[in-house]
């Protein structure tokens, strides 16, 4: 017997869809209206998941021929020699990391490329990884980075990292599933400009806003030690590339400071950081932003993910759909026997 039902609709943008229901759901139904109306072979039309099934799975109906004739499978078993993506329950208050994945090299490119035999956990311009045991690029060990471009099971880019000296030594990485619950989060710094208003690059796409008060930790190893301990106000957050906001402009004149330089391999240091400490209410209001948000908004949520893929053939049969697909969903809580 159903006790609570949720429903909604969206147009797929070709990326995983995260749906916040506010509480745990026991079952999910997904209807891809675009695919239902089409006569395209192998498209998924209906997906069903219930608690007890594995993550990223779903019972699915699909067009087995270039018609509207429906067949049935699961996304995990797949069809047409392809494995698809289904439904995964999400609770971001449970902070988890993926299993350790080995890397074999880091290139001297800008951005650097991490060589690895398995990129299946990563989504370009979305995932965050933490690097550990980096034998050849020890200055990156322990840092979190946004993932940029991915070459499947070959390399992934550290989107906002400076170019290091190339390394062909082993390392490890883990995917960070969910960030800390309150925003804005402190972030590691990979570059600071010398300018009338310093521009700061963060290693992970950040969620600072205009009007935030921030304090800097910049150890001597990074060169621009004059910045260490200074407090400034965020005056701009700029999106560069496709990985989101990663540059922060602050009202601190750094023109006369020593040049910021990311430490080399083998250097022992504490990471440079930008840390939220409060809010300049007047600046926030003058920019049309709400005040008193600061680090008090809980960003965690409970719900589920409808996954898809950048690979067109996989997206066709996945619950998250292909960009432009009209999708309706239902979810609910049920009594179990």
Q: What's the arrangement of strands in the largest beta sheet?
A: 8-14-11-12-13-10-9
Structural class: mainly beta
Strand content: 35-45%
Helix content: under 10%
Q: What's the end-to-end separation, in Å? A: 11 Å
Mean pLDDT: 87
**Tally of separate helices:** 3
| Count of DSSP strands | 24
Map the helices and strands.
Elements (H helix, E strand, L loop, with lengths): L1 E10 L5 E4 L6 E6 H5 L6 E7 L8 E5 L6 E5 L12 E5 L9 E3 L1 E2 L6 E3 L12 E5 L11 E8 L3 E4 L12 E5 L6 E2 L3 E6 L6 E4 L9 E6 L13 E9 L5 E6 L22 E7 L1 H6 L10 E2 L3 E5 L5 H4 L10 E9 L3
Annotation keywords:
globular, mainly beta, 3 domains, 4% helix, 6-stranded antiparallel beta sheet, 337 residues, 7-stranded antiparallel beta sheet, 24 strands, Elongation Factor Tu (Ef-tu), domain 3
